[in-house]
Structure formats: structure tokens, C-alpha cells
Amino acid sequence: MAFEELLEDPVIQKYLHELVGPTGMPVAAAPPDGEVTDEELAEELGLELNDVRRALFILYENDLASYRRVRDEDSGWLTYLWTFQYDNIPENLEEEMYRLLEGIEQREEYESDHQFYLCEVDSIRFEFEEAMEFGFECPECGSPLESMENSRLVEAMEWRIDQLREELNVDSEEPEAQA
Ligand SMILES: [Zn+2]
């Protein structure tokens, strides 16, 4: 697979950036074809060795890089030879999207299933039961708690859920009419 092509994708760039951060990005964005040592990368990219190692380790944790150790016969030092495995990126991204979808679905359910009350002074939100316990008065400042509309938020989340399901080719879970 051509790494260059993958790396032109802004979604993949963002994904890598979130993984390794700005200091690790030069490492993540310039994967060499064959094996490479951390020292070679640091020198090539003009980076601190620690920053290179940190980025490599994050990539390793996410199955995007692997290494093998070789012992230098003269010095006895261990050298780590790194290989980038960016073929795994699409699969990782898909898993990430499933996690995101699940999170939004749970949040959406919570938002739709609850009624909320707001103290406009402190911008604190209470669930109905809580608000009732406080006699619909803010425990912080004593202001009356106002019923709060969250249908906009729910709609926005539903829209995002549809979008993600479409991207992932997941069937929507609309209840089917019984025959
Ligand atoms: Zn308040």
C-alpha cells in the first residue's frame, strides 16, 4: 500500500495527529518504507530522540509500527529496528468510528430519556429528580430552576448517528412495523 496516498487523507492526518500530538507528527507523517532506527529518524527529522521514541511507542501501541531488536556485535548495544505498519490504519479508524457511534448513541438515549432543569445563573443542569429534591431551586444560589429544552441537542446527535451509520454501513435501528 502506498503510504503517501494514505497520508493525503485529511481524516487519517487528523487521526495520526490525535494519536502522537504535534511533536510526534513529523515521525508519523513520514513513514519510511523499510526498517529504521529511532536515532536515524531523529537525525533525519531534526527531532529530539525522546520525542521520536515517544511517537514510535504510541504507533506501536496502536498496531501501526513494530520493532525487532538486534545486538550490535562490536558494542553489544541493542538496536531497535522499526517498521511502520500503516496498512492497519483503515481498520483502526473503523473501530474508532464504532466506538464513537456507541458513545453518541448512549448519550442520545440519556438525553431523550431525561428531563432537565437549569439554573441560568450558574449554568448548572439538573435531572428532573434532582431538581425536585431541591424544590426546583438552585442549591448554589437559590434561583428558580427552569425547565430546559434539549431537543436541539438530541436532533444534532441523531443527525451525527445517522451520518456515522451511513459511513459504517450499519443499518439504522428504526423499529419495523409489525405485519
Ligand atoms: Zn444557581
From TrEMBL:
A molecular-function term among this protein's GO annotations: DNA binding
Domain HTH TFE/IIEalpha-type per the UniProt entry, residue ranges: 8-90
SMART domains recorded: TFIIE
Record-linked Pfam families: TFIIE_alpha
Reported function: Transcription factor that plays a role in the activation of archaeal genes transcribed by RNA polymerase. Facilitates transcription initiation by enhancing TATA-box recognition by TATA-box-binding protein (Tbp), and transcription factor B (Tfb) and RNA polymerase recruitment. Not absolutely required for transcription in vitro, but particularly important in cases where Tbp or Tfb function is not optimal. It dynamically alters the nucleic acid-binding properties of RNA polymerases by stabilizing the initiation complex and destabilizing elongation complexes.
Subunit structure: Monomer. Interaction with RNA polymerase subunits RpoF and RpoE is necessary for Tfe stimulatory transcription activity. Able to interact with Tbp and RNA polymerase in the absence of DNA promoter. Interacts both with the preinitiation and elongation complexes.
Official protein name in the record: Transcription factor E
